[in-house]
């Protein structure tokens, strides 16, 4: 920070997140509009692989940069990189491609609607877990006496696992229209959080973060894929998707504050998070089944 004050940190963080939240739905609209079927899936795959690899690499490099005394230069160096990246916008069309209604209807099966509704329940759960776990990771490292230079690389484990999950879903089609993918993803997310929070060794911590990343990545990819497919690439579809991200990020730390305010320890905090995940998982399944039944009834 140029002005080392906690209020400066708050202002920068809130401003950055607010503009980021405005930007993402617009990007998603331009990304998918005019694309259908395999073309749309390929575009979503490239996009997710791009930004998720950036977050994984950035976090993994934090430790080495700090050890080399270069961390203070890392963030300022991003400004010219971002300015250079903006030059690519000059090659983009002023308006996104038209999304043909006929092609859209032909490429979106009726099963996608129920899966979208279920994924929109699980989607904020993934970010709830991330928001709840991120503040306590330093305490987990302290409890395990992990060397400081390993904090960032180990923390990036779930980012790498999430990227791997997205790469697999991008290059495969077996999961399209299958609710079991969301069920398995939810189980991985819950098991990963539990293992991470209760980890008694660094290996258990890494395994937990890996499971968490695989589950969260699969849920995210399902959520954005079905949102863009069913929502016909509209900004509203992306906006709802991003709003659910914010809801998850808000709820996770709130559960931690509730546990702290009640004077409860880690077990109560874990129980609160798992309780929300359990209720959310059951509701997602019920919503998926109910929506599928209503869809079948309307067809008949």
Q: Could you say which overall geometry the principal axes of the C-alpha atoms support? A: globular
Structural class: mainly alpha
Percent of residues in helical segments? over 70%
Uncertain spans? none
Looking at CATH, which topology would you report?
Growth Hormone, Chain: A
Quickly name the level 1 CATH class: Mainly Alpha
Q: State the CATH superfamily name.
A: MFS general substrate transporter like domains
Count of beta strands: 0
Mean pLDDT: 87
In the residues, how many domains can be counted?
1
Number of helices: 12
Provide an overview of this structure:
The chain has 300 residues and is an all-alpha fold. The chain is 80% helix and 0% strand. Helix 9 (179-197) packs antiparallel against helix 10 (202-230). The protein contains twelve helices and no strands. The chain is globular and about 60 Å long. It has one domain: Growth Hormone, Chain: A (Up-down Bundle).
């Amino acid at each position: 920070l140029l002005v080392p004050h906690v209020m400066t940190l708050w202002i920068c963080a809130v401003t950055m997140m607010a503009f980021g939240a405005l930007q993402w739905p617009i990007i998603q609209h331009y990304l998918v509009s005019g694309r259908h079927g395999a073309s749309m899936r390929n575009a979503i795959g490239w996009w997710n692989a791009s930004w998720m690899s950036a977050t994984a690499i950035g976090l993994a490099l934090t430790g080495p940069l700090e050890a080399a005394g270069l961390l203070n230069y890392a963030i300022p160096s991003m400004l010219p990189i971002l300015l250079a990246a903006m030059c690519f916008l000059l090659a983009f069309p002023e308006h996104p491609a038209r999304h043909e209604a006929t092609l859209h209807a032909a490429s979106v099966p009726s099963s996608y609607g129920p899966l979208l509704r279920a994924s929109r329940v699980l989607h904020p759960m993934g970010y709830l877990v991330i928001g709840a776990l991120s503040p306590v990771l330093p305490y987990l490292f302290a409890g395990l006496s992990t060397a400081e230079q390993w904090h960032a690389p180990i923390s990036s484990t779930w980012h790498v696992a999430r990227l791997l999950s997205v790469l697999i879903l991008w290059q495969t089609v077996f999961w399209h229209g299958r609710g079991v993918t969301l069920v398995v993803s939810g189980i991985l997310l819950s098991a990963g959080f539990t293992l991470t929070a209760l980890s008694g060794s660094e290996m258990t911590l890494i395994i937990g973060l890996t499971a968490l990343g695989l589950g969260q990545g699969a849920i995210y990819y399902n959520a954005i894929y079905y949102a863009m497919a069913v929502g016909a690439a509209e900004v509203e579809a992306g906006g709802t998707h991003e709003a659910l991200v914010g809801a998850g990020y808000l709820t996770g730390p709130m559960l931690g504050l509730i546990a702290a305010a009640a004077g409860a320890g880690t077990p109560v905090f874990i129980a609160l998070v798992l309780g929300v995940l359990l209720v959310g998982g059951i509701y997602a399944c019920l919503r998926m089944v109910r929506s599928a039944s209503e869809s079948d009834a309307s067809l008949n």
